[in-house]
Amino acid sequence: MTADQFNPANNSNYLTTLLDQMETDPLVETMVHSLFRRGDLSFLLHDTQRKIRDTVINTPEKEILILCSRQLGKSFVTICAAIEHAVRNPGSIVRIFSNTESQVIDIINDNLRVIEQLAPAGFIDRKKSDKRWYIGGTGDPKEITSALSQIRIGPLARAHIDGKRGGNASLIILEEGGFTPSEDYKSAIGSVIGPQLLRSRGKLIHVTTSSEDPDHYIHAVVAPKCEVLGTLLEFTIYDNPQLLPDQIEEAKARCVSNEQWEREYLCKVIRSLTSSIIPEFNDSHINAMTPPSHANYRVSIDFGGTVDKHALILYYYDFERAKICIYDERMLDKNSSTEAIKQASVEMESGVKWLTEYRTRIADAPGQIRVDLNTQGFTMRTPEKGQGSLEAGINMTRMLFANSEIEVHPRCKHTIAVMRYGRYTQNRKDFVRTEAMGHCDMLMAVVYGVRHIDKSNPFPRYLGLNKRDHYINDKGHIETVKSILTGFFK
After folding, report:
1. Is CATH 3.20.20.20 the right assignment for the domain spanning 283-451?
2. 2-9: long-range contacts (C-beta < 8 A, 24 or more apart)?
3. Poorest-pLDDT segment among 56-70, 126-140, 154-168
4. Could you tell me which residues come within 8 angstroms of residue 266 by beta carbon, excluding any fewer than 6 positions away?
């Protein structure tokens, strides 16, 4: 049974077929119009579009990044989500921005054309004079359109000077932001878009193909933030159920370079080897590992203080597989108390089996904090530092990733984000600071950790067994002499 038998929208001709059915079958028309009135347009979407739509509707988080291949129908699904939001929240305002105003008008018109044909008469009413669409109408000429929800548009490149300041919105969609200059994009969010969501506490959705600029605001700031929030969605051309294999091959053949294919159809960010701190990191290094029965765990801490965040990782060396495993993490905001940092570490440590009661913690912390915590029984030692140790530590970490000798558990979202998106400043003298990653503090926790990893064999000889008081019974199970004697004298 094929996928489109479960979801007819997976067929590329579905919308045309649905329009034909509505013209010949009044019951189909009634059902479709009923779904529009209820604010449920999921029946128009193929499987991948439904994943996007469900995240937009169901996530409690306020910011979402959708990195999509071309021709996936990303604009169609976000406009459907905008209409659903408008219907479910009467009187609300949805704003859609793109690089230029003409571009966003084309995006809306191209995708609304078929939606307007499917919708009840008067349900979508465009007012060309004020460049807005009223949603949820009945077609009654006496209807007060100002009480309806609205979709309004605006440019990203000139948002702060084209009269788009002020007002509010409960949902804002930014279309193809990767093709708006990074500084314009950043400025639009800071001076126009962010304030419009302040009172409504609404959602901000970025939907774009990867930018040609690997240091674009979307990749450098938005992506790591959404990675941590769990709202970074990536869909390649292979996630489009409406395309056949020969169509995908045709798309690939038309690309002028492999870089263009990877960027526009595989959602790849072509990362600069000079600006990226750990360019060797990729998805193959993410593994939901199961710790072995014996492992020497350690904790690595980078104290931030009043300026930077505090980063903690729990890690161990898998002796059998020869892998350094980053198993858990905690990230605390700047100015977090010493007690909060201590409790975060204790919480991580309590989740694993320690071979000894002694905890090994490597912590880059001010001297007085180390003294205070040591007196409380929270022992730690300082990482080894010396001339050139920072660069050497980063290079060591890069080599470990390049040789597939280090893995990160998927729950360590801050660690994954900094490995993906951490970058140097232009002169390579410092790390770029961002809201999500801080001063790449989690990276330094990893660097201290790999420098002080314990690679000794944690397994006792014969796994703690010996020939004097252990034997294998007739069922192949190991038993001890003591257990046999105990059973004999019962």
Report:
1. no
2. 3/47, 3/241, 4/241, 7/46, 7/47, 7/50, 7/241, 9/43, 9/44, 9/45, 9/46, 9/47, 9/49
3. 154-168
4. 69, 236, 237
Confidence of residue 155 (pLDDT cuts 50, 70, 90): confident
424 SS3 class:
strand
Backbone angles phi, psi at 100, to 5 degrees: -125, 165
Q: How far is Cα 232 from Cα 421, in angstroms, rounded to an integer?
A: 13
H or E stretch including 77? helix 74-88
The CATH architecture assigned to 3-265 reads 3-Layer(aba) Sandwich (3.40)
- Distance of alpha carbon 132 from alpha carbon 284, whole angstroms: 46
Q: How far apart are CA 438 and CA 323, in angstroms?
A: 27
> What does pTM read for this prediction?
0.75
Residues 81-118: pLDDT tens digits?
999 999 999 999 999 999 888 888 888 888 999 999 99
Quote the tokens at residue 32.
């479709």
231: phi > 0 → left, psi -120 to 50 → alpha, else beta; which?
alpha
- Is the distance from CB of 182 to CB of 174 less than 8 angstroms? no
CA 477 to chain centre: 47
Tokens coding 381: 């030692």
Show the tokens assigned to 41: 């347009």
Q: Do residues 443 and 419 touch, judged by C-beta distance below 8 A?
A: yes
Q: 């495993």: which residue's tokens?
A: 325
Q: How is the chain split into domains, by residue range? A: 3-265, 283-451
pLDDT digits 0-9 by tens, 423-479: 888 778 889 888 888 899 999 999 999 999 989 998 877 555 566 665 566 565 656
CA 407-358-385 angle, 5° bins: 60
pLDDT one-digit tens code per residue, 165-188:
556 889 999 999 988 888 889 888
